[in-house]
Amino acid sequence: MSTAAITLDVSCGLRFGGAGALVYKPVSAGEFSAVEEDVDGLLRAAAKESGSEVESKTDEFGYEWIVVRDKDLEDVVTSVHAAASELEARGFGGQLLAAVFRFEGKDADKPVYWVYGYKTGTFWPFVPAGKEQQRDNAEELELKAKLEHELPVEQDLTRWFGLFGAPI
Amino acid sequence: MKRKALGRDAGLTVRMLITTGLLGLLYVVFAVVLFNVFNVGLAPMIVIVVAIALFQYYTSDKLALAAAGAKVVSPDEAPELHAMVERLCALAGLPKPKVAIMDTDVPNAFATGRSPKHAAVCVTTGIWRRLDAREMEGVLAHELSHIANRDVLIMTVASFFAMLAGLLTRFGLYAGMWGGGGFGGGSNRDNNNNQIPVWLIVLVVSIVVYAVSFVLIRTLSRYREYTADRGSALLTGAPEYLMSALQKISGEMARIPQRDLREVQSMSAFFIVPPSIKAATAELLMDHPPLEKRLAALAEIAREMGRPVGP
Predict the structure, then answer these.
(1) Which of A9, A157, B206, B236 might form a disulfide with B168, Cβ 3.0–4.6 angstroms?
(2) Cβ contacts of A162 on chain B, cutoff 8 Å
């Protein structure tokens, strides 16, 4: 992701937008709550060190978002990865949906998201186009073309699902 | 400064030359076989085919438009479309072709005409409605590249012998049905004793020539499409719009889903389905390259354009 960020900056004029998140589906089991608490504790400890902010959110689809805010992409990636690894190590890897990273161009209100799908192990771009459930496919295809060599970009376009209303 | 063809690509040019060469070779072999098997009756046939080809060539713009049911529109009737074509023609150094609109929801566009001076571009109302201005520009630039590259001429010449072979196949069939006497003025009676009938040889050769030339013409056509895509990318300077237009036109833009990842997650089996396996043989018969390959080629151009120009 870090080398990709350089390419994004140089050839697309996009900079890291200071936020990333891990999205997962919670399970209503006592054991899972314990794991969640551990992950939370782990992240807050890491956050204190790196100076990032961590918050948890539940969205309208019933998914949990662990949002990490930090100016440094590296710190965000590390935190998100740590949280995901912890969930995987405790046997809840199947609950992981995606990791999302926010990028911005000159216009901070028009974010570009890079989504990492845990089910496919690939990245894809997601550029919401202002209106409800609309996305900028031209921009997304351009991003794919430019980043293909640095990132494992999902080649099957039918899997480029969006994350509308992402809280980051 | 005059640009003869938009966007030269060395690899593509070589492949195109090889395909054209193979086509030429095939026709020479075909001609030799024809001349050896009989010496009469060939001339009238060629005259007919040449006449048809010439007719097709000289009327290609009007013929194609009429066949498609397209209507040539004036700048007053379609000011935006005319302005767009004018702008692109100015950029490409082409005379402005006739502009036609076809009233159908099927998103499509085509160019026709034997030379840049006798050309026409046609778009359907469906494509005009679906694409935004920059995507439309990409598509029009693709069609104008076809005109600049004289693709109608190239394809007419390439199809010429295939047509001849097709005609001969039919003649051969008729001749066979009428007892071999109706062909070439019935002058091959001496060959008829204990030999394979002439019409059968002609029939077989023609069928083979037709089949092989069909594949080769399709291959050539696919290369022309790549070249026109490249021309469009260089002309508009923004291949990504042609890419998104291509996706929309082929109904493939729907491939980038409008749905949310969280909505579809329950159908987890979805993610295990392997991408559909396409037979390579099917591609041989298509006159347009598969979308994935066109997009990949355009993506490559986009990357090339993204690089700074060398010293």
Answers:
(1) B206
(2) 257-261
What is the value of ipTM here, to two decimals?
A: 0.71
Q: What is the pTM of this model?
A: 0.56
Q: B-chain residues within 8 Å CB-CB of A119?
A: 268, 271
Number of DSSP helices (H) and strands (E) in chain B, helices first: 11, 4
Q: Is B77 helix (H, G, I), strand (E, B) or coil?
A: coil
Residues forming a β-bridge with A20: A68, A101
| Per-residue pLDDT reduced to its tens digit, A110-166 | 899 999 999 888 999 999 887 667 788 878 888 888 888 888 998 888 788 889 888
Q: Which residues of chain B does A145 touch, with a Cβ-Cβ cutoff of 8 Å?
A: 239-240, 243, 298-299, 302-303
Residues belonging to chain B with any Cβ–Cβ distance to chain A shorter than 8 Å: 134-135, 239-241, 243-244, 247, 252-253, 255-265, 268, 271, 275, 295, 298-299, 302-303, 306
Active-site residue identified among B143, B225, B283, B292: B143
Selected for mutation to probe chain B from A161, A163, A164 (highest B CB count within 10 Å) is A161
- Chain B residues whose beta carbon lies within 8 Å of the beta carbon of residue A148: 299
Three-class SS of residue B120? strand
SS (HEC) of chain A: CHHHHHHHHHHHCCEEEEEEEEEECCCCCHHHHHHHHHHHHHHHHHHHHHCCEEEEEECCCCCEEEEEECCCHHHHHHHHHHHHHHHHHCCCHHHEEEEEEEEECCCCCCEEEEEEECCCCEEEEECECCCCCCECHHHHHHHHHHHCCCCCECCCHHHCCECCCCCC
Closest C-alpha among A23, A5, A22 to residue A104 = A5
* pLDDT, tens only, B27-70: 667 766 666 665 545 566 667 667 767 776 777 677 778 777 78
Most B CBs within 10 Å, among A10, A97, A123, A137, to test the B interface: A137
DSSP for B202-269, written as a single string: HHHHHHHHHHHHHHHHHHHHHHHHHHHHHHHHHHHS-HHHHHHHHHHHTT-GGGS--SBHHHHTT-GG
Q: CB A117 to CB B275 under 8 A? A: no
Locate B162 and state its tokens. 């295939």
Residue that the structure tokens 């998201």 belong to: A113
